[in-house]
Amino acid sequence: MRFPVTVLVSLLALAGCGTTTSEPETGASSSTSESTTTTSASPGTDPPTPAGDGARVVEVVDGDTIRVEVAGQQESVRLIGINTPERGECLSDEATGRLQDLVAGQTVELVVDRTDRDQYGRLLRHVEVAGVDVGAELVRSGHALAREYPPDTGRSEAYAAAQRSAEDDGVGMWATNACGSGTSGADVVIDAIRFDADGDDNENLNDEWVRIANRSGSAVDLTGWVLKDTSATHRFSFPGGFSLEPGTSVTVRTGCGSDSATDLHWCNQGSAVWNNSGDTAFLLDPAGNIVASQDG
Known about the structure:
The structure is a single chain. Strand 4 and strand 5 (73-79) form a beta hairpin. This protein starts with 5 loop residues before the first strand and ends with a strand. The longest helix has 14 residues, at 156-169. Strands 3-4-5-9-7 form a five-stranded mixed barrel. It has a four-stranded mixed beta sheet with strand order 12-13-18-19, with no helix packed on it. Strands 16-15-20-21 form a four-stranded antiparallel beta sheet, with no helix packed on it. It has two domains: 6-174, CATH 2.40.50.90; 188-295, Immunoglobulin-like (Sandwich), CATH 2.60.40. Helix 2 packs parallel to helix 3 (156-169). The chain has three helices and 21 strands. By secondary structure, it is mostly beta strands. The chain has helices spanning 92-103, 134-140, 156-169, and strands spanning 6-8, 36-40, 52-62, 65-70, 73-79, 82-83, 107-111, 115-117, 123-129, 132-133, 145-146, 188-194, 209-214, 220-221, 226-228, 235-237, 243-244, 249-253, 263-265, 280-284, 290-295.
């Protein structure tokens, strides 16, 4: 069993002058390779940095990060409970635009869950405008994924329900060909997953895997296809020229090894990829469309 490592330290409130050109992802890691340093705020007490009404949005940095002016200073705020496409990925600009529509120039409420700041000095908050949960709206419109960031899970169930609604409605990233023309007629699915390897996942990487099956009537060239989790960092690109024959499957293992027609290796050395406590595998076609997803 793998246990994510979170190192708790006290941070000075220094986020006000940070750069706005590149905002790293934070929150709970989907594997031990994404450790997180946070400052906790005790429930029922005032957090050690500004929160509440009266925060004016001065910039939308990307789909899940804003800068606000509050209590006479500027702060960078990472919306918790969601994750939007990274810069350069399909729908990144659309997610940023949607967040701008919701909050640009608005006075917002910053709602603390359990954690005050991340290791980059950003405030971790739910953001509301006139009582509307902005994170939930981004998920519901298909511009963000619901993603748990323990211990900040107070709205996880609501965000998961919003994502199910987006999937059912086929909006945003869940729309057919949302990222452009995909692979027509390919019936490729995530057939099975094993996120919890025997023993310590970090020492048994090839026992952690996702299996992809081709249910089409013909071979599918997986060149340019991607297997990913909900984080911003874990991406496996299928090797050029790899074709999956009809009625067959291929297992993508986290560790290193010799590739074959039935086994491919992520070779994510040093740490596991998938979160044992709950994760989602996504299969994307070369355009970036979500072809299949499965929770584990």
